[in-house]
Design goal:
two-stranded antiparallel ribbon; 44% helix; elongated
């Protein structure tokens, strides 16, 4: 299920009930027929608003949170708009749907490129160094004065070609 309004109704219901993440997680154990409940980490992902927050969760998790907050599930989550399995089918971890960010129409500095690629700046430095040692320029690298700029389209194309080879 997908949480409504990036979790604002969830956080408002928690505040109204006087619950924090730890207490809400404990309360899910009380309402769970199996007595397992949800971990503090999972509750934090679902109700959070930082960059680790999740927009979607299983029907089971949404139901436990709604029951623990004594709210109707449709006041906290979008019911029926997104198909997800009721429980994770993975034995190791929940399935994460990766959404790729749109490619920007402008050049990026190294910090922006590292964030976009989900790599470290030192990884980028190492790739540039390896390219220089082989006598070539790293794809997408553009020197503007004394600073580096990167064309994300060229960087991704080169990375795709390298992994396909």
């Amino acid at each position: 299920m997908r949480r409504l309004e990036t979790g604002a109704p969830l956080r408002a219901a928690m505040e109204a009930a006087g619950l924090d993440i730890s207490r809400l997680a404990a309360k899910t154990k009380d309402v769970d027929p199996q007595g397992d409940g949800l971990s503090r980490a999972l509750v934090g992902f679902i109700v959070g608003k930082g960059k680790t927050a999740r927009e979607e969760c299983s029907d089971h998790a949404a139901g436990l949170i709604a029951a623990a907050l004594d709210k109707e599930i449709d006041t906290l989550f979008a019911v029926g708009s997104v198909f997800l399995t009721p429980r994770s089918t993975s034995t190791r971890r929940s399935q994460i749907v990766e959404r790729r960010p749109e490619l920007p129409d402008q050049l990026m500095d190294q910090r922006q490129l590292a964030k976009f690629l989900r790599k470290s700046s030192s990884w980028i430095d190492k790739q540039i160094q390896l390219a220089a040692e082989s006598g070539s320029l790293w794809p997408g690298l553009i020197y503007v004065g004394s600073s580096r700029r990167f064309d994300p389209h060229a960087v991704l194309d080169a990375m795709r070609k390298r992994t396909a080879a």
